[in-house]
């Protein structure tokens, strides 16, 4: 199919993936209200058009933690990315590096840290979850450090998993459904060809090493439920802060009070996020949560945001509301599923193009120019 806008990749991914995997990516928690609002609320932020300001060349580059980004975009950590395309994490990381933006490897990646980090010529970011097993966390941090990771994304909005009813309907979750579905997918010729598996035994790669002997997706989901730690608090994180020399970003902040706590804790950054509407349905969209958070902590740490960002105009809106950069979740995953590394590169080019137009028509020639003045008061 013809890809002319970032949004086209969703349909292309839907056509390519087995339906339970598409819905696993596409779906959210409970009635999916927050999932929908995430997208709609960015769209409702009206940009203020300004003309004849002599903008000329638009410069999309920005600096985050001493790293230069060719546009203010980071690929978000997405679990099981290696299921959506062959060696998916490597392909996405290469696309990000080719387009000059960071890639974040999820704790629950298929490709291990040691495979992805050397495949690219810029430092990769690494995401860690709060797990009961501190030894596991320490091991993951040590491996990330050894692989040259500087920036740590610490995800705090999944102390318990939100209910994803779409997964139950699609057969992704439920008693033994995961294994059954996975086996079906493995034997589905189109998908096996797509991910390059060709009937080889199912391998969850890096995830299997956490699971020990377990190898199925049912074990994976069970492992998440059993190992995530709902009792964690800021003081429990101190050892990570002490251990990690590089920038530490807390992902999953939705309230100004928590953002202030992140500043007191000594975080270098936060991600204003509701996990793409996959955790607590009914919470604020990121577009709605961001302004108050920016008011509380802007300038005290780096503010990233994600959830519902689908195009370059949304990036400009997020920056105007106070973010320093955005993370892309589903947007890049759809592109990866649709067309691998090339798909993600195309997506990033489309984002850059859209941002250039939006910046020109709002009178901003560089990223630092974008701010609350670019929002139209209704
Ligand atoms: C995620 N997300 C996520 N976050 C994280 O910190 N670790 C992870 O392993 C995952 N896994 C994951 C899988 C899938 C399929 C999705 C869609 C999302 C959340 C992700 O980092 C990001 O916060 C959201 O995807 C942002 O919302 P949008 O851009 O997808 O709407």
TrEMBL record:
Matching Pfam families: FMN_dh
Keywords, ordered alphabetically: Cell membrane, Flavoprotein, FMN, Membrane, Oxidoreductase
Catalytic residues (UniProt): 275 (proton acceptor)
Catalytic activity: (S)-lactate + A = pyruvate + AH2
Chain sites annotated for binding FMN: 106, 127, 155, 251, 306-330
Keyword Cell membrane: yes
Enzyme Commission no: 1.1.-.-
Main location as per UniProt: membrane
InterPro entries from the UniProt entry: Aldolase_TIM, Alpha-hydoxy_acid_DH_FMN, FMN-dep_DH, FMN_HAD, FMN_hydac_DH_AS, LldD
Membrane topology summary: Peripheral membrane protein
Record bears the keyword Nucleotide-binding: no
Domain FMN hydroxy acid dehydrogenase: 1-378
Binding residue positions for substrate: 24, 129, 164, 278
Cofactor needs: FMN
Enzyme class: oxidoreductase
Alphabetized CDD domains for the sequence: alpha_hydroxyacid_oxid_FMN
Recorded family membership: Belongs to the FMN-dependent alpha-hydroxy acid dehydrogenase family.
Role according to the record: Catalyzes the conversion of L-lactate to pyruvate. Is coupled to the respiratory chain.
The name this protein goes by in its record: L-lactate dehydrogenase
Organism: Brevundimonas staleyi
Lineage: Bacteria, Pseudomonadati, Pseudomonadota, Alphaproteobacteria, Caulobacterales
Annotated gene: lldD
């Amino acid at each position: 199919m013809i890809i002319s806008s970032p949004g086209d990749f969703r349909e292309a991914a839907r056509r390519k993936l087995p339906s339970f995997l598409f819905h696993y990516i596409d779906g959210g928690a409970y009635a999916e209200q927050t999932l929908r609002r995430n997208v709609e609320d960015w769209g409702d932020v009206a940009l203020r058009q300004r003309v004849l300001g002599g903008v000329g060349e638009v410069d999309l580059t920005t600096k985050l933690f001493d790293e230069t980004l060719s546009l203010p975009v980071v690929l978000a950590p997405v679990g099981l990315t290696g299921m959506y395309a062959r060696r998916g994490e490597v392909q996405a990381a290469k696309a990000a590096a080719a387009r000059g933006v960071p890639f974040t490897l999820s704790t629950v990646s298929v490709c291990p840290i040691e495979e992805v980090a050397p495949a690219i010529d810029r430092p990769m970011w690494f995401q860690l979850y709060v797990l009961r097993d501190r030894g596991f966390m320490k091991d993951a941090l040590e491996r990330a450090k050894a692989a040259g990771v500087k920036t740590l994304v610490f995800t705090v909005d999944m102390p318990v998993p939100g209910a994803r009813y779409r997964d139950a309907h699609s057969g992704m979750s439920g008693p033994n459904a995961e294994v059954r579905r996975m086996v079906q997918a493995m034997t589905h010729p189109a998908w096996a060809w797509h991910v390059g598996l060709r009937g080889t035994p199912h391998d969850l790669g890096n995830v299997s090493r956490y699971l020990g002997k377990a190898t199925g997706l049912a074990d994976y989901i069970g492992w998440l439920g059993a190992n995530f730690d709902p009792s964690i608090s800021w003081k429990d994180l101190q050892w990570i802060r002490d251990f990690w020399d590089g920038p530490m970003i807390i992902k999953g902040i939705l309230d100004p009070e928590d953002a202030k706590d992140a500043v007191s804790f000594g975080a270098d950054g936060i991600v204003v996020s509701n996990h793409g509407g996959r955790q607590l349905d009914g919470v604020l969209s990121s577009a709605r949560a961001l302004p108050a958070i920016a008011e509380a902590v802007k300038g005290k740490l780096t503010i990233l945001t994600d959830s519902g960002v689908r195009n370059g105009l949304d990036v400009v809106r997020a920056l105007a509301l106070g973010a320093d950069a955005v993370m892309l979740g589903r947007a890049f995953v759809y592109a990866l599923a649709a067309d691998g590394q090339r798909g993600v590169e195309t997506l990033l080019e489309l984002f850059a193009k859209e941002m250039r137009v939006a910046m020109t028509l709002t009178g901003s020639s560089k990223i630092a120019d974008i701010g609350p003045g670019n929002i139209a008061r209704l």
